[in-house]
Amino acid sequence: MHHADTSLVPDSIQSKSDFWLHVHGQLASLLEGQRDWVTNLANTSSLVYNALLSFRSFGNGSAAVNWCGFYIDSTLFPSPKLTASHEDALLEGTSKILLGPFCGKPACQFINTTPGKGRGVCADAYLSRQTLLVRDVNAYPGHIACDGDTNSEIVCPLVLTLEDKVVCLGVFDLDCLAVGGFGEEDKAGLERIARLVVESCDW
Ligand code: SME
C-alpha cells in the first residue's frame, strides 16, 4: 500500500466509532518502526486530516474539518546553538507550546501556557490535561482565533506517564467549519489516537 492510501476511508465505514477504529489501525501501521516525534506527528496530522475529509460527515463543504495539528512544549524543540532569540529573552520565565506539524492554513506560532496567564482552548487543555470539546468557539472565553472561518474545536492533551510523574507534552488540536462539529465519539477516538502517538515516539 502507498503511504498516501493509509488516509483513504472505505465506503463500508459509516459510523464514527468504526471510522476512528479504522484510523487508529491505519495510524498504528504508518508509525511502526519510526520513533522521531516530528516525523510521526507530521504523518499523524496528515492521516487524520485527510481521513476526516474523506469521511461523509467531515468532508462536506460547510461542515468540513479545516485544521488538524499539534502544539508541543517548547522545551522539546531543538534550541538555537549560539544565542537566545529576542523573543525568547522577552518570554523568559514563561512556558509555552509551539506550533508543530499540522495540516491546514497557517496558524499562530506559540501559545502561552504559564499557569494563570495562558488563555485559549489549547492552553486550557494543556494545563488541565483534559480534552476540551468546544461546540462554538465564539462563545469560549479566551479562544484564540487563528482562522475566522472556524466555528468548533476539539483539543486533546498528549500525556506521558514517566514512572510516577505525569507530563503533558503538548496538544492535538482539530478545528471545524461547523458549529458542534465534534462529539463524544470523536473525543474517544482522538484520545485513543493521542495515546498511540505518545507511545510511538521517543520524547
Ligand atoms: N483556537 C486555538 C488556537 C490554535 S488554532 O485553532 C490552530 C486556541 O484557542 O487555543
Automatic annotation (TrEMBL):
Top-level division of the source organism's lineage: Eukaryota
Official protein name in the record: GAF domain-like protein
